Amino acid sequence: MGTHAPAGQPEWVQHYMHSAEQQHDAAKFGMWLFIAQELLFFSGLFMAYIVFRTFYPETWLEGADQLNKWLGGLNTLVLIFSSFTMAVGVRCAQLRDIPGLKRNIAITIACAFIFLVVKYFEYTHKFHLGIFPGKYYAYEGATGLMPIFFAIYYSITGLHAIHIIAGIVALFWVYWRAVKGQYDTGNYISVENVGIYWHLVDLIWIFLFPLLYLVK
Amino acid sequence: MTTELQNPPVTADGFENEPSYINARKGLMSWIVTVDHKRIGLLYLFSTLFFFAIAGFSAVAFRLELFTPAPDLFTGDTYNKLFTLHGGMMVFLVIIPLTPAALGNFLLPLMLGAKDVAFPKLNLASYYIYCAGALCLISAVVLGGFDTGWTFYTPYSSSVGGPVTWALMGAFILGFSSIFTGLNFVVTIHKMRAPGLSFWKMPLMIWALYATSITQLLATPVLAITLLLVTLERVLGIGIFDPAMGGDPVLMQHFFWFYSHPAVYIMILPAFGIISELVAVHSRKRIFGYGAIALSSVSIAVVGFLVWGHHMFVSGQSELSGAVFSFLTFFIAVPTAIKIFSWVGTMYGGSVRLNAPMLYTLSFLFLFTIGGLTGLPLATMATDVHLHDTYFVVAHFHYVMASGAVISFLGALHHWWPKMFGTMYDEGSAKIGAWLVFLGFNLTFFPQFMMGSSGMPRRYHEYKPEFELMHQLSTIGSLLLAAGLIWTAIYLTKALFWGPKAPHNPWGGVTLEWQTSTPPIEHNFHETPVCTTGPYDFPEIDESLGGGHH
Q1: A44 to B219: CB separation less than 8 angstroms, yes or no
Q2: Of the candidates B236, B251, B523, which has its C-beta nearest A133's C-beta?
Q3: CATH tag for A38-213 (out of 3.55.10.10, 1.10.260.40, 1.20.120.80, 3.40.50.300)
Q4: ipTM surpasses 0.90
Q5: B178-187: per-residue pLDDT in tens?
Q6: Second-level CATH architecture of B12-545
Q7: Residue closest to B363 by CA, chosen among B427, B430, B293
């Protein structure tokens, strides 16, 4: 029925594409477009941050004091390092170094879990003090408008954490495909695309960290 | 520019022994897991038309209530749920997906000379995401309905009881269907055009879908975050929009309209693309101002992101903001008007055929112009103060959206019907349908301009007796419109199952979708066509007289 790769192309090229190059380019372009819309998705929360920080600057200072900048800084380093190992992983895939790819993806996944564990400790520490989101907020030691700061804090770091979890799932998928030998053919675009996504997740955190933790 | 086509129109002979995409694979499963863009287009077509019927009947229901000033058919609560259902379903389940997903999916690869979109599996996923979102929205209705209006303004939507969260989540999920379709189309247009098909040779339908897809991709995520924040407000009491906690309810309006204004361009840009195609083919003349129409589509998409505040003139935003938004809204009328002039210029000196697609095109030109012009008193702050939240606004957006998106869609459905289904509809019935829809539409909505400028507020289920006559005319119009649409559904259903076999290229179109079999084979083309002529270079245009321009 003509669903084979076009003549002269590797078998993983789809029948509606002309060449491996076209397929690779299309997939990468698609990923960048997805990243563009992710930026717009987060932009609403960044906009809310700007609006409320402008309205309530003192609340922002107090809120930032409640956050542990050392743990936040640790998480920042962990994510930057994971972006590095991700990039090395992509290079390994390009060179068909499958053991290297597996190793680097595994380290990236481990870093992602470290990030989540640190966040878990941060959140539980706040819950211990009664700093819950929204109507469950029960912390006495700050001004009345503090819940707004934490509304933004929990929404944006929560949404970011959801993206980290989605990234972990994607990274496991890449690892599984590597184990199955699906990158032996030289079709490494999915590694590259997961890499692009992972760098975005890292980039968002790099903005979040100073905006939330380092307010002076 | 040659008048001879490199690939002359293929007769049915070239594909005689090959099944069309409809017959290529059999059985329900082959439709459920199809990755063929044409079949996915049909899945969207039937789903969106199904919801169009439901949303339409809900409108007839409340129009019947409005026949008399007193509230006799429904309680206020039910009335509010009915108009919310009408708006929410029409916006999210019908008009946003209608032309891009139903028609666009079918036509885009064919017009580009491609065998499918860039990501066929993502395309199917988009459809199932649409279904999931639809189910959530329907759950909200089944669980008792919601009455916030499709606009979900806080603090009402963040605090009222009822299944509002289901509706918010439904719209959130539907947004991703829209985003993925937009993404798919942008990549397909950039990366999968046939050799020789430069951007400046693309049919204007593609330019329109391109501008629409960029808007879908970039605007919809803002809706997503807005709905998510309102949900968090409901579920966790987050307080970003709650003044009692230091939040700002108008901020929600800014977030909401930042998407919902571009959303109306998602609804209308594909309609503009349709009109460009129909007016050129049915006037047998090259489109007037191809470049202007192409660039105006993109500029409308861009400027469309900058005008959201014109929905908020009376919300308390500063006069300066209002003035800026007002100016930009006036400005966006310019590229829009350029299109109208170009389409009329196309017809001038052309060989106009008054068949059903052309009747719908003419309806569009007339009705959309009214809709567009009535946007100007709304864009002017001084008059908007009086007209905001009246029936004038309702009439304005129905003239642009219902006449714009729906009537152009009906024209497109008739124009591409033979290509999609391989049968022909009855032209006489089609003309009757077009007239019924045109007359019914005008009778429904023109009185609403008059009521609105006299002060009749929108979303009210009872009103002062002085508005009774206008309301009665409007209700009768809505019944006439419903009759026209039902009539159309009947003869089209007949054509679908029992219509005569369609000629290969009944209108003599020269764009690539007409260069392959009718209906197309599963993979669209045997070999990728090479494009050497423009999309409106009809063979009979006598180049010695300057090529069809005046």
Answers
A1: no
A2: B236
A3: 1.20.120.80
A4: yes
A5: 999 999 999 9
A6: Up-down Bundle (1.20)
A7: B430
